[in-house]
Amino acid sequence: MAKEYIQINKDESDGIVAISTPVLESIATLALEEDKGIHLAGKENKVYCRIQNNTLSVYAKVKLDYGRNVASTCESAQRRVRDAIYQMTDIPCDDVSIDVVGFVFR
């Protein structure tokens, strides 16, 4: 089973500082919602974070606005999620998987 948190301090003399997966999921969600052409799919838990062997992986189910370039939009979203998590936590994100499950027609 994967851990529910990742420890961010190496020196435990003052105690442990850890970030839980829901916090990382919130950061990833906010990064994805910055792009108005990306819509989180589903009703709940659209973004999942998994910590295994001290590596962070993010998985997101999204819908894109019809007419958007899927490859470039997803690459941009991956970069945005990876950068947001690193900037806010100093935790490198090893894998960001974007699953396009549909399109939004307007």
CATH homology superfamily: Cation efflux protein, cytoplasmic domain
Q: Average pLDDT value?
A: 89
| CATH architectural label | 2-Layer Sandwich
CATH fold topology: Alpha-Beta Plaits
Query: Cα distance, first to last residue?
Result: 41 Å
The percent range for strand residues is 35-45%
- Poorly predicted runs: none
The rough form would be described as elongated
How many β-strand runs?
A: 6
The structure class reads alpha+beta
Summarize the structure in words.
The chain has 106 residues and is of the alpha+beta class. The chain has one domain: Alpha-Beta Plaits (2-Layer Sandwich), CATH 3.30.70.1350. The protein is built from 2 helices and 6 strands, in the order E-E-H-E-E-E-H-E. The chain has helices at residues 21-33, 70-89; strands spanning 5-7, 18-20, 38-40, 47-52, 55-65, 93-104. The strands form 2 sheets. Strands 3, 4, 5 and 6 form a 4-stranded mixed beta sheet that branches. Strands 1-2 form a two-stranded antiparallel ribbon. Strand 5 (55-65), helix 2 (70-89) and strand 6 form a beta-alpha-beta unit. Helix 1 packs across helix 2. The longest helix has 20 residues, at 70-89. It is elongated.
